[in-house]
Amino acid sequence: MSASFAEKSVWIQLLGMAVALGLYFVVAGWMLASGITILPDFAGVFVVAVVLLVAILIGGHLVAALMGRPEPADVRDRELEGRAEGRTGWILATGVIGAIGALVVAVEPVWVAHLLLLSLYLSELARLALQLVYYRRGM
Amino acid sequence: MEPARGSVKNRIRQLRFEHGEMTQQALAERIGVSRQTVNAIEGGKYAPSLEVAFRIALVFAVPIEAVFQFDPDAK
């Protein structure tokens, strides 16, 4: 069974997120380990990661559109996304609660920001991966 | 509480055959979904919404129960 344009889009988003933001977290982790705790110092790396993400998304969707006819998401695509989101939203919620707890115990803002960003990143990766499982295995 | 059992079976493949070997793409275009969605419904990997189910029945000009049947014993 060949993949629909919507499924290919999910693969591209997963790849883009994993690569671009994965690289950000590698660099940011290295910076944090080096003792850099001023939040604006991370902005440049983050901008580069976002530009890389956008480039992967645009390039990937262009290639997918050239390989097959682009189609809008249909009722199944939206249902798969909604169900995957419902099952992975707890990751982001856990990160938010953790960040609030970190603020209460006066953890430095740079750690709180990265905890929030990491929970968003993991939540999105999990959602996209689960969507692909639903596409392949059915639901 | 016992886990829910049963699954939705369908006769879409047979109905397409009876309607001049209608392709999945042709059916998909008539009901407003992708070919892959028709394939998933036909293969039992996706239970369609009531609206899509009615649209399919409408294309084949049969009652909805002639397209979809619920098998309560299936796991």
How would you concisely characterize the structure shown here?
Chain A: The chain crosses the membrane at residues 12-33, 45-67, 88-107. The complex is a heterodimer of chains A (139) and B (75). Chain A is mainly α and 139 residues long.
Task: Please write out the topology.
The complex is a heterodimer of chains A (139) and B (75).
Chain A: H1 5-33, H2 43-67, H3 75-104, H4 109-137
Helix pairs in contact in A: 1-2, 1-4, 3-4
Chain B: E1 7-10, H1 12-18, H2 24-31, H3 35-42, H4 50-60, E2 68-71
Antiparallel strand pairs in B: 1-2
Helix pairs in contact in B: 2-3
Explain this structure to me?
Chain A: The chain crosses the membrane at residues 12-33, 45-67, 88-107. Chain A: Keywords: Membrane, Transmembrane, Transmembrane helix. Chain B: This is Helix-turn-helix transcriptional regulator. Chain B: Pfam families: HTH_3. The complex is a heterodimer of chains A (139) and B (75). By secondary structure, chain A is mainly alpha-helical. Chain A has one domain. Chain A has four helices and no strands. Chain A has helices spanning 5-33, 43-67, 75-104, 109-137. In chain A, helix 1 runs antiparallel to helix 2, helix 1 (5-33) runs antiparallel to helix 4 and helix 3 (75-104) packs antiparallel against helix 4 (109-137). A two-stranded antiparallel ribbon of chain B has the order 1-2. The longest helix of chain B is centred in the C-terminal third of the chain and has 11 residues, at 50-60. In chain B, helix 2 (24-31) crosses helix 3 (35-42). Chain B has a domain at 12-62: Orthogonal Bundle (434 Repressor (Amino-terminal Domain)). With 75 residues, chain B is mainly alpha-helical. Chain A binds chain B through residues 1-7, 71, 74-77, 79, 137-139, and chain B through 32-37, 39-40, 43-46, 48-49, 51-52.
